[in-house]
Design brief:
alpha/beta; two-stranded parallel ribbon; Rossmann fold; about 280 residues; about 10% strand
Length: about 280
């Protein structure tokens, strides 16, 4: 950090202007906000391929299922690539989604289906919620999902990429942090930006063991999903703010936008340093 010219961050100024200003003041160096990186290339095929490629359901099948759902009716559920849910926690999530009565797209890791009991239970859930629910084993094309018109909410572990991707696509979040910076990201989404709703996690869990002292139960999940996806003044305000920040994110990445201009400035800074070094080397 001492020898660096500055810091590059995956965010945009309208999202965290005060924080960026404080960080720059503390560093005494530029902070280049160049994001959201997820909006760098919005080509459909590129969006579908980002993040991985191992899925029990094809991207085409996922989009086809989403196409059949009403606008902003589907809640998307994914907890990132690191956190692991124990079978008893998976059962609570599944029952909660079932009892919510809402259409859902739920991503479950293959490593979470190691036991025959978990696999059999998931198959029974799929049978009971056929048409209303889609369970994707392994990986889902998250950007393609979040950008789809039928998706109206995202149950997330609050990893920064997921939070920013949801905001960039104008989708409000139901926050379920697990560890590390995820609780700070939850606070930003809920308390600062007003685009999120807490599911009620009070303490962090171990990375590979989510056996929390106060677990989130199916009733909590059903109520929170319903509250996120329902009508009403508070829910509408979350949706309005999410869409507003989504529009600002897109504007930041367009020519003349803040992130676009900061990237241009960063490139010019590197060119200046390179030219200076070449002149010094030339004598």
């Amino acid at each position: 950090m001492r020898t660096s010219q500055g810091v590059v961050i995956n965010t945009f100024l309208d999202l965290e202007e005060k924080s960026v200003a404080c960080y720059e003041a503390a560093l005494g160096k530029p902070v280049w906000t160049l994001g959201p990186f997820c909006l760098h290339n919005r080509d459909g095929e590129d969006m579908a391929s980002r993040g991985g490629n191992k899925s029990g359901v094809s991207e085409r099948a996922i989009v086809a299922w989403l196409d059949k759902q009403a606008p902003e009716s589907v809640v998307y559920v994914s907890f990132g690539s690191v956190a692991r849910k124990l079978p008893k926690r998976q059962f609570e999530i599944g029952h909660g989604l079932e009892h919510s009565g809402r259409p859902f797209l739920w991503v479950v890791k293959e490593s979470e289906l190691a036991s025959p009991e978990a696999r059999m239970w998931l198959e029974s859930l799929q049978a009971r919620t056929s048409g209303r629910g889609l369970v994707v084993r392994g990986w889902a094309p998250q950007l393609a999902v979040l950008s789809h018109r039928s998706v109206g909410g995202f149950v997330t572990h609050c990893g920064w990429n997921s939070v920013l991707e949801s905001i960039a696509h104008g989708v409000p979040v139901l926050t379920w942090p697990h560890f590390a910076d995820q609780f700070l990201n939850e606070q930003l989404a809920v308390d600062v930006l007003g685009v999120g709703l807490r599911i009620g996690v009070m303490a962090p869990v171990m990375i590979l063991n989510d056996d929390a002292a106060a677990p989130v139960l199916r009733g909590d999940i059903a109520r929170a999903v319903s509250e996120l996806m329902q009508g009403g003044e508070e829910a509408e305000e979350r949706r309005r703010k999410a869409k507003e920040y989504g529009a600002k994110a897109r504007k930041a990445m367009e020519k003349g936008g803040d992130s676009y201009e900061r990237l241009t400035h960063l490139i010019e800074s590197f060119r200046h340093v390179e030219a200076k070094n070449m002149n010094i080397a030339a004598g």
